[in-house]
């Protein structure tokens, strides 16, 4: 079962066009959605999660029309929003139990097994009786994935799940995601390139509401192989370089500014070849469009 | 730094749209009420008189609590809400500068906003005279001081005080909700003081404690006449000063406490006390992620949906009842129920027994206001529950149908309202237990609460639910929902829109009665509840379409969603509900308008004006007079109908030939009348002309009636009720407790009673202002007719009445025969001698309590009390009063004319007692269920019975002529008689309480006069003159000239004027002559002052000291001040009197108790002195230690400030 998105459009009442003709084919497995803040990732995710209307376009999941048959979608959906709250005075056990019953798990014994295994899986077993209000950010996020996994969902949507997590929590979270069955579509949105390269076989880069690149991360990286050049420069020179070359990113290394330039040939002798990675793909796609250089 | 923060706050606020929105709302509100002139002021005062402006400013400051909490709650909270606290306090600012700046900045803005109202008023009052809603002469010119003074004293002080409290609460607790809760608490304190004001004894306490000083203000101006109201601002002295000091002081203290207590560290840091984190337990367990999640079966069946519906609703229900705000308001609401139930139903300041219907009625006092608020707020919470905790995205993506979620939320609120109605039950039963009353009528509780009240709360929910579904901003939703209710209330209360068909949730008023239970109100309530529930559910369906699930709140998206949800099911439900709504509305309209002739207030006034314009030409035309009445009445209480045949023997007592009979049926009312038989001397008369709108018919006599000719009229009429009205008790014929009088039949000729009386209304409809309703004392027509009814002089009466087998029917006269026939009961009554033309027909399931009174001259009177079987509580008080009254009156005024005295009970659809010849009907809520266990409470059963029995002499033996002042001969005399019976029973020293009550009611009555105050000799409309002033003046007179002496005068008058056979009938001139004849020359000044003029004293004790003398006696020196002034009817001072007046000077020990346990004064010395105008000094010797002394200590005189007549005596300085 795959998810087909075609020509999806959405303009908010304030005039911002969040989605422009978005078309994607998403197969089973982990799919990464990469894009800067405000690119339209969350709009797309919320539309897929039945929480938002689209102006035009179609989305089908197997034979379900996602936009018009929300109730069907919700039965096989697991959703972890970018930001979410919990009832602070309820324990995670009770909350999961409650959500499980709302998701149609009506057999009590089954529900108990399910909740217990989810708590174990997400390493929350010790805290199952603590109120959710006392959870740390990482614990809350794990609770979030636990609730999304209830009911063997066919479509799992996780929106920027690792934002704000410390490195250890991130790893833990990645482990959880990677364990999700292969027959499931998992859509992971993030602005952290590493998340994608670690987890996903398929991805799309979305910028200003448009899909600007899609495919396998390795294939995408292949596409710019040998075209990335780097140079250490003085900060004051940056403007000159930007005018002259296609600077896709800059960063600081030991106090000096390093620039990456996209070019088929070595721009100047002072440039060194740099191994292309997914990050370069990402920056090369968005820098030109957004007219800014990520520093 | 303070300056910067202060100025920033002001600039910030000035840029906020909310500031100008509040300002604008107040401005518009001010404009509306000032241009329309629709202000709370009596007709004789300017709409922009200083008193009226002060009242408006004061009231607006009470409703401004909400404003104060909105403005003063946020300045500090803003830094929490926007998370700016995390860095803001890292700047080099001091706590005091911060607090002071934010506080003063916001307070300035608050004051600025309130000025919107002032500006609205000032502009509006300039436009008002040209706008034409209120007569131009009721606007006076602008005087800024009339705005500034009350603003400083009342309006801003209230805002300041409330603002300080809110500011302190939020700054110290960081919880903005407390500002709202604080607002509720203040409002509650205010409402409690309102309840306390019902008892005049609490006056001073209220003046001090009312946090908004509205009660204080009302107490200050309570006796102000229109002239004073138009000229004076309220003086800032006495209790008002202390009140302001108290509340501003509390506000200031709260602020200062905040100023010194507040520190950034506690403010910034969250409270971690409750959050213990066990960080160390959070060990990673790498294998955990591998845990297999078992396969589960998911079921999405209809049955499961139903289960889910209830479990979601129940969970939501638990969320609501756990909410602290909910708990706080609910506790307050229940506290009100208990408080109101405990103190709620005083009559004359005396509590009533905690009957079930009283316990139920408190729900409409203060409770319902809080329920409104609670329902609106809780509905908002419920609909925003997921959004508030940011759980909406997860929740929105769960496989729950929209209907299920929406319905579960609604259901949860229905459960909450079920809890709310049960609060009434709990508090009712608790109050009854606390008061030692154990007759719990649970059936009455259940029917009223579950079948009538519960659906009403559901209609409240439906509206709030609709608003909160459509409006996605919670606060906005609250504002709109509350504004809708406020608008409905305002339309109903101020704009005279009273058609319940157009006021959401409204239904006709109903009254519970022990005698008649829920009576006949069920049908109307059923239809109105159905109608509004259908309307509410229609709204619910509309709300469903626009209800926001998901995250998209754009207009386009919501229309899209609405279209999606508009499927066949929704349309079907909607149509069905809409049909029920329209159909029930049409049915109601048919009943109220077509069948029962609903008229708007305006149409009613217009009808009265037209009545006068078209029919006034028939005023005072000669008509025959009834001399003998025979009644044959068949009452069918179970059908609420009656068939009554009256046979009137009528004589032309005039000197003219009468050619036609004019019958005035009156405009069609709720009781539908059908004429079965109508003959005059056996012939069916021919209708000459009929005025349909007024039920006025003119029939020509076959042979014109020459003077002294007699005819016999037979009229048989069936009266019954049809359908149900928009409002109205329809209580003439009910299942149990029918109470009809001669109004069942038409009266003869034009009756001035149906005219408009208000000057304002008359001017508006081009009718001349009418100062008097009755002609003067020398008017021939007036002298030839009796006051209460000009269709007859005295008549003879007999009749038969039949009723349902379980009821007793009563008519005037003595029971001749009683029998049962065809399963009905029959009673024949015949009156001996004559009675004025005023008879009643009553029927109910009665128990009869019988006693006998034996007079001094061997006469006996049967006392019979017809009462509801369970109302046996105060029978002894009625009988005792009847006996004491008969004792006193037969001795003082002459013999009682009948051999029986009957008191009967009728349902509480009206609440009065009325004296018919030998029969006094008493409303169910009047005396029968009073709680007289505390002897200090006024035994009004005793008091009023004495008054009504006195009417057997004053009213029924002497029935005065239809001329000005005549009401004094019946009412002032009855009131005086009642005071005298009480004086005999309680002793002269216990009378002050009663006299002061009379005085208070008189002074308030004249202050609210809408025309001009009339004198005792001329008054024909003013109850406060004929009851209160009359009673006081006559009591004062007997005290001056001697009780026996005055009563001898009355006895002589009674002898001369009773049952006067023909005109001219008696007038106040004759009455006054008898009074003058027994008054010595030295006291004639009192008569002139009291009967011919409007005279007010200002007597005051200034200082009193005592010195102990050697022979163990005490020399008391009293300084008093006396002033006597004359006023015209408008309250303008005409001059003062320099001549000395005979007044009491008294010296007292501490108050004691009389035999009845009432507080009673203990005089050491009381003496009448001729006291000159101005200050004087008196010295007396007493044998015991004196405590208090004063002038006119019993308040016998009409004194503008009755409270300063007595003063505590202090030892003299040597």
UniProtKB/TrEMBL annotation, chain A:
Keyword ATP-binding listed: yes
Transport among keywords: yes
Domain of life: Bacteria
Keywords recorded for this protein, A-Z: ATP-binding, Nucleotide-binding, Transport
UniProt GO molecular function: ATP binding; ATP hydrolysis activity
Stored Pfam families: ABC_tran (PF00005)
Domain (ABC transporter): residue spans on this chain: 3-233
Family: Belongs to the ABC transporter superfamily.
Name used for this protein in its record: Multidrug ABC transporter ATP-binding protein
Natural source organism: Algibacter mikhailovii
Lineage: Bacteria, Pseudomonadati, Bacteroidota, Flavobacteriia, Flavobacteriales
TrEMBL record, chain B:
One Gene Ontology MF term: zinc ion binding
Domain Peptidase M1 membrane alanine aminopeptidase residue range list: 882-1061
Segments traversing the membrane: 20-37, 57-77, 98-127, 147-170, 177-196, 245-268, 325-345, 365-383, 410-434, 454-471, 478-495, 526-547, 568-590
Gene3D superfamilies: Neutral Protease Domain 2
Keyword terms, alphabetized: Membrane, Transmembrane, Transmembrane helix
Protein name in the entry: Peptidase M1 membrane alanine aminopeptidase domain-containing protein
């Amino acid at each position: 079962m795959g998810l087909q998105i075609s020509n999806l459009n959405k303009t908010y009442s304030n005039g911002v066009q969040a989605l422009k003709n978005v078309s994607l084919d998403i197969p089973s497995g982990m799919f990464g959605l990469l894009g800067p803040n405000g690119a339209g990732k969350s709009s797309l995710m919320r539309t897929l999660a039945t929480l938002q209307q689209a102006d035009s376009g179609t989305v089908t999941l197997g034979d379900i029309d996602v936009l018009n048959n929300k109730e069907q979608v919700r039965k096989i959906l697991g959703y972890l929003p970018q930001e979410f709250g919990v009832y602070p005075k309820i324990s995670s056990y009770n909350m999961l139990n409650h959500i499980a019953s709302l998701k149609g798990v009506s057999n009590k014994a089954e529900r108990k097994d399910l909740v217990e295994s989810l708590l174990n899986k997400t390493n929350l077993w010790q805290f199952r009786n603590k109120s959710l209000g006392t959870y740390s950010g990482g614990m809350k996020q794990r609770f979030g994935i636990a609730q999304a996994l209830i009911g063997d969902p066919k479509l799992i949507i996780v929106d920027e799940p690792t934002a704000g997590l410390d490195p250890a929590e991130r790893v833990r979270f990645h482990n959880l995601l990677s364990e999700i069955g292969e027959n499931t579509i998992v859509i992971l949105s993030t602005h952290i390139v590493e998340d994608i390269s670690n987890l996903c076989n398929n991805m799309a880069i979305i910028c200003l509401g448009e899909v600007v690149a899609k495919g396998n991360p390795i294939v995408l990286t292949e596409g710019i192989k040998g075209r990335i050049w780097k140079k250490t420069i003085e900060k004051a020179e940056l403007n000159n370089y930007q005018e002259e070359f296609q600077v896709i990113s800059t960063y600081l290394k030991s106090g000096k500014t390093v620039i990456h330039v996209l070019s088929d040939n070595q721009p100047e002798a002072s440039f060194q070849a740099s191994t292309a990675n997914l990050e370069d793909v990402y920056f090369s796609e968005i820098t030109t469009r957004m007219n800014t250089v990520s520093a | 730094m303070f300056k910067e923060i202060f100025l920033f706050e002001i600039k910030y606020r000035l840029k906020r749209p909310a500031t100008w929105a509040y300002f604008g709302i107040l401005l518009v509100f001010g404009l509306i009420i000032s241009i329309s002139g629709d202000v709370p002021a009596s007709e004789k005062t300017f709409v922009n008189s200083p008193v009226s402006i002060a009242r408006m400013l004061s009231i607006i400051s009470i409703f401004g609590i909400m404003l104060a909490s909105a403005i003063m709650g946020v300045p500090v909270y803003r830094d929490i809400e926007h998370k700016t606290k995390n860095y803001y306090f890292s700047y080099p600012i001091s706590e005091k500068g911060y607090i002071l700046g934010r506080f003063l900045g916001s307070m300035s803005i608050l004051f600025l906003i309130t000025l919107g109202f002032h500006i609205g008023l000032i502009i509006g009052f300039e436009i008002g005279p040209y706008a034409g809603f209120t007569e131009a002469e009721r606007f006076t010119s602008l005087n800024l001081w009339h705005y500034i003074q009350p603003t400083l004293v009342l309006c801003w002080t209230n805002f300041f005080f409330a603002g300080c409290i809110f500011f302190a609460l939020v700054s110290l607790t960081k919880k903005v909700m407390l500002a709202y809760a604080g607002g509720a608490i203040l409002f509650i304190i205010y409402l409690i003081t309102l309840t306390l004001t019902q008892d005049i004894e609490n006056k001073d306490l209220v003046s001090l404690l009312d946090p908004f000083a509205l009660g204080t203000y009302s107490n200050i101006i309570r006796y102000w006449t229109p002239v004073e109201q138009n000229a004076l601002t309220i003086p800032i002295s006495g209790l008002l000063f202390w009140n302001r000091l108290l509340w501003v002081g509390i506000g200031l203290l709260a602020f200062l406490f905040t100023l010194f207590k507040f520190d950034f560290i506690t403010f910034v840091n969250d409270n971690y006390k409750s959050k213990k984190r066990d960080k160390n337990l959070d060990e990673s367990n790498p294998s955990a992620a591998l845990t297999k999640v078992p396969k589960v079966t998911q079921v999405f069946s209809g049955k499961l949906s139903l289960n889910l519906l209830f479990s979601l609703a129940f969970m939501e229900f638990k969320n609501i009842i756990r909410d602290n705000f909910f708990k706080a308001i609910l506790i307050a609401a229940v506290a009100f129920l208990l408080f109101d139930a405990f103190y709620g139903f005083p009559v004359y300041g005396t509590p009533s027994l905690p009957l079930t219907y009283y316990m139920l009625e408190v729900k409409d006092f203060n409770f319902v206001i809080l329920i409104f608020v609670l329902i609106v707020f809780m509905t908002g919470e419920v609909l925003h529950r997921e959004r508030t905790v940011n759980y909406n995205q997860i929740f929105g993506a769960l496989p729950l149908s929209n209907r299920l979620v929406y319905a579960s939320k609604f259901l949860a609120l229905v459960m909450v309202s079920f809890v709310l109605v049960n609060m009434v039950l709990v508090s009712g039963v608790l109050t009854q237990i606390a008061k030692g009353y154990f007759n719990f009528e649970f059936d009455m509780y259940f029917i009223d609460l579950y079948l009538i009240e519960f659906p009403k709360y559901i209609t409240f929910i439906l509206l709030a639910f609709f608003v909160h579904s459509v409006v996605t901003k919670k606060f906005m939703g609250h504002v709109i929902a509350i504004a809708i209710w406020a608008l409905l209330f305002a339309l109903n209360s101020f704009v005279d829109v009273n058609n319940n068909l157009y006021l959401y949730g409204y239904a006709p008023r109903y009254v519970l009665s022990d005698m008649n239970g829920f009576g006949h109100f069920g049908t109307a309530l059923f239809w109105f509840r159905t109608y509004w529930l259908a309307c509410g559910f229609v709204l619910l369906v509309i709300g469903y379409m626009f209800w926001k699930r998901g995250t998209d709140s754009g207009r386009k998206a919501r229309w899209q969603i609405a279209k999606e949800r508009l499927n066949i099911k929704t349309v079907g439900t909607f149509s069905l509900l809409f049909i029920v709504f329209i159909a029930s509305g049409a049915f109601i309209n048919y009943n109220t308008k077509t069948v029962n002739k609903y008229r708007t207030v305006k149409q009613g006034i217009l009808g009265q004006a037209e009545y006068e314009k078209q029919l006034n030409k028939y005023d005072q035309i000669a008509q025959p007079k009834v001399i003998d009445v025979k009644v044959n009445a068949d009452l069918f209480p179970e059908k609420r109908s009656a068939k009554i045949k009256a046979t009137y023997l009528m004589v032309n007592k005039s000197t003219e030939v009468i050619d036609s009979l004019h019958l005035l049926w009156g405009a069609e009312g709720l009781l539908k009348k059908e004429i079965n038989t109508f003959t005059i001397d056996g012939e069916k008369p021919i209708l000459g002309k009929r005025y349909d709108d007024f039920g006025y018919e003119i029939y020509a006599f076959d042979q014109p009636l020459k003077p002294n000719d007699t005819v016999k009229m037979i009229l048989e009429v069936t009266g019954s009720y049809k359908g149900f009205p928009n409002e109205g008790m329809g209580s003439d014929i009910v299942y149990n407790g029918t109470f009809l009088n001669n109004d069942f039949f038409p009266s003869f000729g034009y009756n001035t009673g149906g005219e408009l009386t208000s000057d304002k209304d008359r001017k508006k409809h081009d009718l001349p202002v009418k100062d008097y309703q009755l002609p003067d004392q020398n008017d021939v027509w007036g002298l030839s007719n009796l006051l209460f009814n000009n269709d007859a002089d005295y008549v003879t009466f007999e009749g038969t009445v039949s009723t349902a087998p379980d009821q007793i029917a009563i008519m005037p006269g003595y029971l001749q025969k009683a029998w049962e026939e065809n399963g009905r009961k029959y009673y024949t009554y015949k009156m001996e001698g004559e009675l004025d033309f005023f008879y009643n027909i009553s029927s109910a399931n009665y128990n009869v309590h019988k006693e006998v009174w034996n007079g001094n001259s061997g006469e006996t009177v049967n006392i019979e009390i017809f009462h509801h079987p369970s109302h046996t509580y105060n029978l002894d008080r009625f009988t005792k009063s009847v006996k004491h009254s008969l004792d006193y009156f037969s001795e003082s005024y002459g013999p009682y004319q009948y051999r029986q005295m009957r008191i009967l009970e009728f349902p509480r659809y009206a609440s009065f007692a009325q004296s018919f010849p030998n029969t006094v009907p008493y409303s169910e809520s009047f005396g029968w269920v009073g709680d007289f266990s505390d002897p200090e409470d006024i035994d009004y059963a005793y008091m009023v019975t004495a008054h009504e029995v006195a009417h057997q002499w004053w009213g029924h033996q002497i029935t005065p002529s239809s001329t000005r002042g005549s009401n004094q001969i019946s009412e002032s005399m009855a009131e005086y008689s009642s005071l005298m019976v009480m004086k005999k029973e309680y002793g002269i020293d216990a009378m002050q309480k009663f006299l002061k009550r009379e005085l208070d009611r008189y002074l308030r009555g004249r202050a609210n006069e809408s025309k001009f105050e009339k004198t005792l000799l001329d008054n024909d409309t003013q109850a406060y003159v004929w009851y209160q002033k009359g009673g006081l003046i006559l009591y004062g007179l007997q005290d001056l000239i001697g009780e026996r002496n005055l009563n001898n005068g009355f006895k002589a008058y009674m002898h001369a004027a009773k049952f006067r056979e023909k005109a001219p009938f008696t007038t106040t001139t004759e009455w006054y002559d008898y009074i003058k004849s027994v008054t010595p020359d030295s006291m004639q000044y009192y008569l002139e002052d009291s009967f011919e003029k409007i005279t007010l004293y200002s007597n005051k004790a200034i200082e009193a000291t005592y010195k102990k003398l050697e022979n163990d006696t005490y020399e008391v020196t009293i300084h008093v001040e006396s002033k006597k002034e004359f006023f015209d009817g408008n309250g303008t001072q005409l001059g003062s009197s320099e001549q000395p007046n005979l007044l009491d000077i008294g010296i007292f020990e501490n108050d004691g108790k009389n035999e009845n346990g009432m507080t009673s004064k203990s005089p050491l010395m009381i003496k009448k002195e001729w006291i000159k105008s101005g200050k004087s000094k008196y010295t007396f010797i007493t044998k015991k230690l004196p405590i208090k002394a004063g002038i006119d200590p019993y308040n016998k005189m009409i004194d503008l400030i009755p409270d300063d007549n007595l003063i505590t005596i202090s030892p003299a300085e040597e």
